[in-house]
Structures are given as C-alpha cells and as structure tokens.
Task: inverse folding
C-alpha cells in the first residue's frame, strides 16, 4: 500500500487533426501526488494542464501511459476511480436550472448517499463555504465567487480522497481569491488531497506543498516551491543595458565568481547569485571597471517564474 | 442505472417547475395553429370533421417543435461544465440523456392534454379510447424527437449548427405530414417521399384513432416505427454522451 494518491507514468494525449499535423497536448507526464497534500500543476495556457487533469479524472482516455488514481487503475477501473475523486472544471459545472443546494444534494445522492445523509452533508458544506444564505436561490442569480464556492461544494459532496481543481481562481477578484486559497488549505487540513492547475505563480507558491511545472505537454521541473527556487539560485539581479553592450555585459557577468548563471538579453540580463545583497555592489564595480553602461538595475528574490524561465527560456507571464 | 435515472429525472422536473413559463410557451405555437388555421379547413372540408382531422396534426407539431428545441438545454449544460462534472462521477451515461428525455416526454404529454382540452372546447368530438392511444403515440414521438435533439446537439456541439440542422429538418418534416393540406392532393412522387416520414404515419394514425377507426393499418405502423426510431436515436444520444466523456 503506497501513500500515493496519483501515480502517473508517461501520460500522453494526442488529438488527431483533420488535414493537419496531430496536436500533442500532453507528451509524456509523470506525476506522483501524495495522499493529503496540495499538488500544483503550474504552466502557461496550452501547456497541457487541463488535458492532464481530464485524463486523471477519467474524462478522456490517454493515448499512451498509465496511472493509478485513488488506488485504482485509471484505464481498467474508471468507475472505482470516479467513486473516489472530485472534479471541479474551469467552467464549474453548477447546474443553473436549480438552486445551489439542490446541486450539492444531487451530487451526493448520485454518489450513493441517502436522501437524509445528502441533505446533512449539503448543509454542512454550505455552512463551511458560507453559502447557507444563498443556498436556495436559483443558481443563475449567484455571483462569480459564490458560484466557484458552490462548484467546490459540489465536488466535495461525497467526501472524495482527492479533488481536482482546474484553474480554480481564474476570474476571481483578489478578495475572493484569498478566501478561496484559505478554503483549499482547509481541505488539506481535513485530509483531502488536492491537485490543482494554475498559471498564477503566486498561487502555486502560496498553496502547493509540491508542484510540477509544465510546458508544451511536459514536466520541466518538479519539487517543493522552496526546492525549485533554490535550484535556480537565491537571488536575481536584472540589468538593462544598451543593445550594443549586451554581449560584453553578458560575458562580464559570467566571469564574476559569485554569479552562478546568466540569462536573458539586452532588454533584461539576469544574473543568478547566491546572496544578492553582497553581490550587487561588487557587480556594479565590475561593470564600471569594464566601461559598460547600465540603464537600470534591480535585485529580487528568485521566484517560480525564474524556475520556468531557466527551464524554458521564456517567462511564464509572456508564455501565457 | 435505474436509481440514477430516477434521481436525475426528479432533478430535471424540479428544474422545469422552477421555470414553468417555458413549458407553456411550447404550446403557444400549436394553439395558434388550432385557433387561426383549423377554421380555414372548415371551408375546405365541410361536414365539421376538419377540427378532428387537424388536432392530431397539431399534436405531432408540438412533438416536433418542442422536441427539437430541447438540445439547446443540453448545450447550455455542456457549456456550463455540468455534463463533464457529472461524468467524472460514477453516474450511468445512459441516465444522463434518458432522464431529461423522460422529462421531455412527460412535458409533451402534458402539453398535448392541454391542446386536446382546447380542441374539445372548440367543439371537437373524438373517440375517447382513440385519444388515449394517441397520447401513447405522442409519448413515443416525444422520446424520438428529444433524443434526436440531444444526439444532434452533442454531435454538433454548437448552437448555430443545431439551429441550422433544426431548420433543415423542420420544413420537410412539417410539409410532408399532411398536417397543412392532405397528402392525397400531392402527386405520386411527393406521396412516396411522405411515406418515408415517420411523422406522416403518426398523423395518419392519430386521425384514424380520433375517428375510432381502430383497424386502420397506420396505427400499428406508426407505433412500431416511432418506438423503433426512438430506440435508435436514444442509442445515438447515449453514444454521443460516452464520446464526450469516456
């Protein structure tokens, strides 16, 4: 018995295209999600995050690869998997023809709870998500934030061991986002494993116990946010230099003993250093002695974007 | 599966009862036909049987027009991610189309009863057993048109595409039923095409039943044809749901 709730090996998904090259949405993804943790899939739009989650949630069959989800083989026992997972898509899946409460109750009953248990469970979830006051309104009259919370409540109706959240905070305002993060942490504290996709760096950083960075259908890096950032380096010094000076400046930076790595171009040269506070003055002196001009310079801590940048050569902000 | 159908059916009915106006709108069009068009036929067919001959046609008309529109509801549900969310659970795939189709069937029979009441008020006299059997036929037509609409919607997955398919289906289906003018007036080739239209046989059967002419061959033909086709379209709709979320 392993404590892994998701164990995926070599997942691939290729969509045939009429009169054209097939689209490789996912090109071989390995994932290990531990029971009870929040696992993030971070990547730009089109990286294959949603397709990966849809495969793991039994909604689309992988072209290749295999996975065990919640203790059952994805391909051989999809029904067993479906009994144990919750799935909240980007669209949410709240049925607007009835009330939010009826949505939650129906979800619970389809998972085998009795009418009484389903009603009790719905009341409990609506209380947790502060939805009791709007529970009986037609779902179509709800605000975006309320709808998101209902979607989450529906996904949790049957107490799944694992819940998939696809871009859970896209389109939410900052206040609702912060509240939603709190709710996701609450899930983990209650023992539910969460696999969420996001293209927000701060979201992955703040929520995920561990994460995988995906790009073009592949995992390019995986680990805890701290590990990933340490792997890049501690701090990043960014310099803007005239285009003509980019080449010599890059060479000069690379020659400094405290610079671990150099990236970018004249528009933004990046020097990855261990300790930025002491490296910055030394770097400025070196530039002056080298007779190079600097238009702007800044120092910041490494972020997950730097991890993405180093792995793919692009910024996640631009890639999205 | 039966439990899933029951739960989802109850859910569908609750949704319909929350928006009851739309149920009434479905009858408006055939009521207009009954009130504004049937009197014209009186002039063509003296003897007072015009209303009795037209009413079965009006019933088939609601089966066609309200049946073909249910696919839009399925598309709205698809867009909202409801189908996908349900499919990620252990729910029977067949129940996902069967439950709404059964709701549509019940709604259609209700609308048909309303229309029959109105026709009776307007002075229509018909064989009561024949009317009851016609309602059974209407139920089968409801299953056929609803599951056809769900299958088309889930195959096209696009509101505009569905609208065009519906418009293309609606006109020949309507003209070739003999609802507006009797097919007896048509040239031989047109009658031959009409014979391939299941709705034509349904109208013929309805007329025979209303007249109390139970030995008319169109009755078993219409019932068998409609039920058989309904089972085929149901299967198609279930296959489309499966394809959507394996």
Result:
């Amino acid at each position: 018995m392993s404590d892994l709730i998701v164990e995926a090996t070599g997942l691939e998904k290729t969509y045939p295209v009429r009169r054209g090259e097939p689209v490789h949405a996912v090109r071989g993804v390995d994932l290990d999600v531990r029971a009870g943790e929040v696992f993030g899939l971070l990547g730009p739009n089109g990286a294959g995050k949603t397709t990966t989650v849809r495969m793991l949630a039994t909604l689309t069959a992988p072209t290749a690869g295999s996975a065990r989800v919640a203790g059952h083989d994805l391909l051989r026992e999809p029904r067993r998997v479906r009994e144990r997972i919750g799935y909240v898509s980007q669209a949410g899946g709240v049925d607007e023809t009835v009330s939010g409460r009826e949505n939650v109750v129906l979800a619970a009953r389809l998972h085998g709870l009795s009418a009484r248990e389903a009603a009790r469970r719905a009341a409990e979830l609506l209380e947790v998500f502060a939805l009791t006051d709007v529970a009986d309104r037609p779902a179509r009259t709800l605000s975006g934030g309320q709808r998101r919370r209902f979607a989450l409540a529906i996904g949790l109706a049957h107490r799944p061991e694992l819940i998939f959240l696809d871009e859970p905070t896209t389109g939410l305002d900052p206040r609702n986002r912060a509240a939603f993060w709190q709710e996701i942490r609450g899930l983990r504290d209650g023992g539910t494993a969460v696999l969420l996709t996001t293209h927000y760096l701060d979201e992955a950083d703040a929520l995920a116990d561990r994460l995988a960075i995906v790009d073009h259908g592949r995992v390019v890096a995986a680990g805890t946010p701290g590990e990933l950032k340490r792997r890049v380096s501690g701090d990043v010094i960014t310099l803007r230099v005239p285009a003509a000076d980019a080449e010599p400046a890059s060479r000069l930076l690379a020659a400094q003993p405290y610079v671990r790595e150099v990236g970018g171009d004249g528009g933004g040269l990046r020097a990855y250093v261990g300790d930025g506070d002491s490296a910055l003055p030394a770097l400025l002196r070196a530039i002056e002695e080298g007779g190079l001009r600097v238009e702007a310079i800044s120092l910041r801590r490494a972020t997950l974007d730097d991890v993405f940048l180093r792995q793919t050569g692009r910024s996640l902000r631009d890639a999205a | 599966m039966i439990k899933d159908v029951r739960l989802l059916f109850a859910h569908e009915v609750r949704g319909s009862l929350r928006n009851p106006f739309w149920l009434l709108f479905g009858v408006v069009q055939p009521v207009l036909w009954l009130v504004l068009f049937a009197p014209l036929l009186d002039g063509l067919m003296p003897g007072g049987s015009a209303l009795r001959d037209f009413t079965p046609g009006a019933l088939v008309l609601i089966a066609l027009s309200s049946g073909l529109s249910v696919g839009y509801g399925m598309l709205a549900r698809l867009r909202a991610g409801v189908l996908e969310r349900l499919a990620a659970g252990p729910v029977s795939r067949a129940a996902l189309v069967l439950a709404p189709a059964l709701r549509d069937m019940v709604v259609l029979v209700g609308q048909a009863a309303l229309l029959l009441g109105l026709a009776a008020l307007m002075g229509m006299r018909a064989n009561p057993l024949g009317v009851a059997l016609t309602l059974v036929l209407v139920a089968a037509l409801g299953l056929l048109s609803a599951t056809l609409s769900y299958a088309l919607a889930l195959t096209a997955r696009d509101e505009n595409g569905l609208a065009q398919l519906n418009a293309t289906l609606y006109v020949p289906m309507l003209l070739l039923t003999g609802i507006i003018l009797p097919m007896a007036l048509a040239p031989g080739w047109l009658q031959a095409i009409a014979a391939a239209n299941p709705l034509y046989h349904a109208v013929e059967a309805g007329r025979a039943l209303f007249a109390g002419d139970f030995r008319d061959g169109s009755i078993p033909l219409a019932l068998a044809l409609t039920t058989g086709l309904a089972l085929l379209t149901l299967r198609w709709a279930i296959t489309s749901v499966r394809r959507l979320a394996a």
